[in-house]
Amino acid sequence: SQREIMSSNGNDNKKFKGDVRGPSVPSRVLHIRKLPSDITETEVIGLGLPFGDVTNLLMLKAKNQAFLEMNSEEAAQNMVGYYSTVMPIIRHQPVFVQFSNHKELKTDNSPNQERAQAALRALSTSHVDTTVAAPSSVLRVVVDNLAYPVTLDALCQIFSKFGTVLRIIVFTKNSQFQALLQYPDGASAQAAKLSLDGQNIYNSCCTLRISFSKLTSLNVKYNNEKSRDFTRPDLPSGDSQPAIEHPAMAAAFTPGIISAAPYAGATHAFPPAFTIQPAGLTFPALPGALSSLSLPGATRLGFPHIPTGHCVLLVTNLNPERVTPHCLFILFGVYGDVMRVKILFNNKENALVQMSDRTQAQLAMSHLNGYRLYGRNVRITLSKHTSVQLPREGHEDQGLTKNYSNSPLHRFKKPGSKNYSNIFPPSATLHLSNIPPSVSEEDLKMLFSSSGAVVKAFKFFQKDHKMALIQMSSVEEAIESLMEFHNHDLGENHHLRVSFSKSSI
Questions:
Q1: What range does the domain containing 103 cover?
Q2: Contact 195/257 with Cβ under 8 angstroms?
Q3: Which of 24, 205, 207, 351 has the most CB atoms lying inside 10 A of its own CB?
Q4: Which residues of 97-131 are buried (b: 16+ CB within 10 A; e: fewer)?
Q5: More confident of the two residues 394 and 26
């Protein structure tokens, strides 16, 4: 009977006092909390439909709660996994979805339950035909003036404010960065287009141009940094990146703010490329807005500025013979200001790198993950630590932890610095600047070959001999050369500046 359900739900409620995550044992019944008081049955059912058929619904309007039963446990797991990373927002209010202790719902024929049943019948027959108002539930997004890289995750965070992003594909066409993005209904697509078209993701750049796609649905084969189907966490990652198998890596992802697994007990860990959906950050602190990847001052999309926490990267598979805190400081410093570096004392293949903010952590991770460094492919993920602890006074840690917060070598101290617009992925060609007049092409070629690397080509800038391009024989050599020779003293009070170039010689 309904009364029996209500009374046993009292236990569900008590759980929330201490443990917001709720029961972790999967069930096809979901407990939904913090619903707006004027919620409709249709809106609650709409939360579940993208993941499978909804077989029953119990509304507890007086408590701002509901119970939703899915047709399978798998559908329910996918739904909880998705909503644990992308907070569902109904009428500008965050809603919480978790497994219930009930294995199935029994509902009676009281009038309010009859309304729920009617809504279910209506929706399951038409399978949500709310697309009448909008031409399509699929949006085509073009990012103009791409001065900073925009990731698939960044787009998900922005577009999730308007509804559940079911599937997304990013690609480059006509040398423009574009995305196709599918919502469960046309209304969300319409709202996103109205709010976001013409907006800048970052200050005065990365402008969104949004139109309705002719496609009615997206077909996604792989979950990786180019495409994702949130309703199917079981999809393979394709060739872009192997999934995490290393036990140390798995341990690094114990569910915290960022969890690699889409839900507790998941068998398919998402590859590190997309663990950046900060579930924890979107809870009470930021109702209605997903955490932003905004650069300082980028409030165009109404994003709150993220607290500086969660800007620590976990770097694994390092070559312990060669890597020092200084070389990580220089390399990660290409993408942001590095505050602290710690090579782990009992496992020197792993390090923590603390950037000055989340955007810089995101930039460093998206640019450096997977590149070879001293013969090993380095993996980078967001750490669960919010800062790197310095050793206590008098405790020797063999120089493995370094504080760089006051270093003169930070590239991004000055707001609006040219360095912001010269952020490129690692490349075999390096851009050199601050070269004194007395230093010749031969001097620089000698310097860069002195470490055993091979210089393939060299060219001074025509207008300005203070700058040059130098091409190494591989990207790996260029990365190592940058770490070794950035800030090298060339005499006459000139320290060489080295960065990756987007042009080749």
A1: 2-126
A2: no
A3: 351
A4: bbbbebeebebeeeeebeebeebbeebeeeebebb
A5: 26
